[in-house]
User: Which sequence fits this backbone?
């Protein structure tokens, strides 16, 4: 008569081999699936990362341009604070005003200059 233990012993090596094959194939299969999802999914994958990198570069360039503008405005502010005549000149230029006896000479955009001539 066979004992129950001997039957189990014979079946275990076959199961162990199939489980070990399954485990050795599982990790590469999961890696392939993860790579496929990362490359093909536009919302969570590599495309999204590239898009975010591009947006970050554009935002960084905008920030630098704005910082340069702020520096130019700060320099203009300092010049206006230092010279009282500069304030008056800036106001007259912005409003298009002249002192008595002064003649304004300037260029207007072509559309505005022709609009007054009819």
Assistant:
């Amino acid at each position: 008569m066979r004992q129950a233990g001997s039957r189990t012993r014979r079946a275990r090596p076959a199961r162990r081999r199939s489980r070990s094959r399954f485990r050795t194939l599982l990790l590469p299969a999961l890696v392939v699936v993860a790579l496929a999802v990362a490359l093909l999914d536009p919302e969570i994958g590599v495309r999204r990362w590239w898009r975010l990198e591009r947006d970050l570069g554009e935002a960084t360039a905008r920030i630098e341009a704005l910082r340069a503008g702020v520096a130019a405005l700060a320099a203009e502010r300092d010049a206006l604070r230092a010279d009282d005549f500069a304030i008056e000149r800036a106001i007259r230029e912005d409003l298009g005003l002249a002192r008595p006896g002064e003649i304004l000479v300037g260029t207007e955009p072509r559309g505005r200059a022709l609009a007054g001539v009819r």
The chain is about 80% helix and 0% strand. The mean pLDDT is 78. The two ends are 122 Å apart (CA to CA). Residues 54 and 69 are 23 Å apart (CA to CA).
